[in-house]
């Protein structure tokens, strides 16, 4: 069951009370996001798991100081973009972690000499270093795909 609660045009004391009540009443809530743009939003942005501040007119304010994420501009669609970017980033992190674990699972055994008795193959230090560099190149290339993915999706929106 997914529970979503929305509050808008709420005073500071009421916002903090509402947040604490939601977190108390629904202990299974995995995270709490608060969006704000002004000085009165700072306490609730600091209380939230993820505080998103909309920075208007490129001015520093208390909301920007208390928030985890600061969006430059005055478009609410940037919130959706930021959440999509966060999901895609976590996906890339999981892919890179899976690649590193699988690579090390195989490469450490080969470097230890598991292929030596049957195939008379032992890795030299230079080959090991080259394969480690290749692994790093793969991880960096996979991470750069994130940039390509979001530049293509922005072009499609225009």
TrEMBL record:
One term of GO molecular function: copper ion binding
Protein's UniProt keywords contain Translocase: yes
UniProt keyword Cell division, yes or no: no
One GO CC annotation: membrane
Annotated keywords: Membrane, Translocase, Transmembrane, Transmembrane helix
Gene3D superfamilies in the record: HAD superfamily/HAD-like (3.40.50.1000)
InterPro entries, per the entry: HAD-like_sf (IPR036412), HAD_sf (IPR023214)
Membrane-crossing residue ranges in chain numbering: 97-116, 128-148
BP GO terms, sorted: copper ion homeostasis
PANTHER family xrefs: ATP7, ISOFORM B, COPPER-TRANSPORTING ATPASE PAA2, CHLOROPLASTIC
Protein name (database record): Uncharacterized protein
